[in-house]
Amino acid sequence: MTPEEFTLLLSEPALRRVFCAVDLGGASPPEILAAAGLEASQAAPAIGKLLRTGLLRSDGPGRLAVNEETVAGAAAVATHRQEEQAVAEQPDPRLRGFVRGGVLVHLPEDDADARRAVLRHVAETAFVPGDEYDERYVTDRLRPWCAGGAVDAVHLRRLLIDGGVLRRDSGRYALVNPDGSTVAR
Predict the structure, then answer these.
(1) For the chain, what is the radius of gyration of the CA atoms?
(2) Alpha-carbon distance 182 to 166, whole Å?
(3) CA geometry: angle 150, 147, 90, nearest 5 deg
(4) DSSP state of 176
(5) Quick check: 136 and 157 in contact, CB under 8 A?
(6) Spatial separation of the C-alpha atoms in residues 34 and 72, rounded to whole Å
(7) What pLDDT does 165 receive?
(8) Can you tell me whether residue 36 is helix, strand or coil?
(9) What is the pLDDT of residue 87?
(10) Distances in Å between the alpha carbon of 125 and those of 117, 170, 175?
(11) Max mean pLDDT range (21-25, 86-90, 111-115)
(12) CATH architecture of residue range(s) 3-71
């Protein structure tokens, strides 16, 4: 079962109520009817559909249970798709979870190497080696990176300077090379 099929099935109120009733421990038809708050004429087709689709399974004579394998399978498919999407959105594994679509969504706190990699990525994407910039321009170039709310542009500028990724000298900013040097034009 795909996550979409799971969602579509449970978007039907009677199916969702029956599924939840069984998931909360209702196993026999009277227990399911009582927990779901449905008439037998509403619950019976829902039970049948949930059995046919594999979300419910027989758990002995006259008893039903959630088919945990089906639910886990749908969750596994969703997890796999999310991982594929994360790779597609951010191919560099060092930046995954921190940078998404040109936006800083989170800043690593406990991993100094990851933090440096993320800050270097932001700086190398926003600025050209050898060029110098005034403070306002730097802040304006960093503002789109802050749309994710991890930090504001002024704080990000300070992090880049403190992290040794940008150099500030007499109000002018320049990208610092990984070896610590700067190239002035």
Answers:
(1) 27
(2) 9
(3) 80
(4) P
(5) no
(6) 27
(7) 93
(8) helix
(9) 74
(10) 12, 23, 10
(11) 21-25
(12) Orthogonal Bundle (1.10)
CA distance 32 to 172: 71
Interatomic CA distance for residues 93 and 109, integer angstroms: 17
User: According to CATH, where is 1.10.10.10 located in the chain?
Assistant: 3-71
Question: What average pLDDT score do residues 60-80 get?
Answer: 94
- Asked if residue 91 has pLDDT above 80, the reply is no
What one-character DSSP code corresponds to residue 150? S
The CA distances from residue 40 to 46, 51, 80, in Å, are: 10, 16, 38
Q: What is the pTM of this model?
A: 0.57
- Look at the block and give the residue holding tokens 């403190």: 162
SS (HEC) of 54-97: CCEEECCCCCEEECHHHHHHHHHHHHHHHHHHHHHHCCCCCCCC
- Closest by CA position to 93, among listed 121, 51, 55: 121
**Number of C-beta neighbours around residue 109 at 10 A:** 8
What sign has the CA pseudo-torsion 154, 158, 159, 164? positive
Total length of the chain: 185
Q: Name the one residue in this structure whose structure tokens are 């996550």.
A: 3
